[in-house]
Structures are given as structure tokens and as C-alpha cells.
Amino acid sequence: AIFDGVWQDFTADRVGALLHPPLYQLRKLLRGIGFVEPVKLIDEHYIINVPVKSDIHEIERIIGSTKLSAHLVENMVELYKGNFLEEEDYHWALSTQYKMKINYLNLLEKYALQEMDNQQRIVELCLVKMLELEPYNEEFVYYLVDFYGRTKNLVKLVGVIERFKTVWVEELGIDIPDKIMGIYTEYMIRS
Predict the structure, then answer these.
(1) Phi-psi region for residue 10, left (φ > 0), alpha (ψ -120 to 50) or beta?
(2) Bridge partner list, 46
(3) What does the DSSP assignment read for 87-116?
(4) pTM for the model
(5) Distance (Å, rounded) from C-alpha 127 to C-alpha 158?
(6) Alpha helix locations (H) across the chain?
(7) Whole-number Å distance between alpha carbons of 123 and 117
(8) I need a labelling partner for 90 at 20 to 30 A (CA). Which of 121, 126, 162, 181 fits?
(9) What is residue 47's three-state secondary structure?
(10) For residue 69, how many C-alpha atoms fall within 13 Å in the half-sphere facing its CB?
């Protein structure tokens, strides 16, 4: 694959001659920093045998944690920029994208509901991120309205309702669910 993209105008012999010096340098460099067998040739394919730290591995590690802290959750919110390989449009990645997103949203929801009255800045980050990923999820809207009501942040409370009125009523032609309007009205009356 690299041959086709980089050296498409060369013969296989010439490509081999061009490939070996950089591979030698790469092996030498990686061995110099402690990797035992950093480049392998398996079935006529070169494989880089070096562990790589990636956002997805870090998110999976946090999702698998038994004890979540505000710091871990905040880190996970910052790391998740979108679905796994969404920009590449690989069909084989769809299952992984779906599972990762569901696990991610479940963890954010669980943390937000557990810490609603304690870690308010992190809870808000979680709830906003949840709605960013699932903008039509009624439960997530409800949680955010409830959160802003509990924290007496009336500006953001009204802002959430106005934004969802625009999306749901004006763009989709559906009413905001009674459950959401009920809790919104309750918090507005209390203020």
C-alpha cells in the first residue's frame, strides 16, 4: 500500500532499494530508545512493533476504571472529539464506533447523575457533551434542565429551553416533552 502511494512509478526492485535505508534507520533509532524488535517482516509485510498510546486507548482505560474521579472524567470529555475513525468512513469501524459511543455516554450519564450535587463543573461538562453527541435525547435534555434548575443558573436554564424550542418546535415540528417543560416550569416558579 505504501509502495503504491509513494513509489508508484518505480519497479518492485527499485522500491525495495529505496525502502531499506529508512527502515534500517528506523530500526536503529527505535532500538536505541529501548525497543527490542521494533520493525518486523511478516509474510512480506513490514510491521512496526511499538506500543502506541492513543486517545481511544485512554478513553477505554477510563471507561474500564472501577473508581472514577472528576479528573478522569474531565480528561475523557476532553479526549472524545467524535466517533472512532468517523472522518475515515470505514464501514468496518461502525460497530466499534457504536460500542465506544454507547459506553462513553453511559459512563458520562452515570457520573453526572451520581455527582449532580457535588462536582458541578464536571457534571455540566458531561451533560453538555452528552447533548452534543445526542442532541435529540430527551433524557439528556431533562438532566441538563434539572441541573441548571438545581444550581439556580436561570440564564443557562432559559437558554437550554430556548435552544431546544428552536430545534424541536421550529425545525422538527414537535413539542418539547411535558416532562421537560414540567421541571422547567417548576424551577422558574421557585425562582
Answers:
(1) beta
(2) 41
(3) TTT-GGGHHHHHHHHHHHHHHHHHHHHHST
(4) 0.72
(5) 16
(6) 2-6, 12-32, 55-63, 70-79, 94-114, 120-133, 138-150, 154-164, 178-190
(7) 9
(8) 126
(9) strand
(10) 3
For the stretch 12-43, pLDDT in tens is 777 777 777 888 888 888 888 888 888 888 88
Contact call for residues 183 and 147 (beta carbons, < 8 A)? no
Cβ 92 vs Cβ 99: under 8 Å: no
C-alpha cell at 36: 527490542
* 66-123 tens-digit pLDDT: 788 888 889 888 887 776 666 666 677 678 788 888 998 999 999 999 998 887 999 9
Q: Pick from 26, 126, 139, 24: which is nearest to 78 by CA?
A: 126
The amino acid at 165: K
Q: How far apart are CA 126 and CA 110, in angstroms?
A: 10
Stretch (H or E) spanning 66 = none
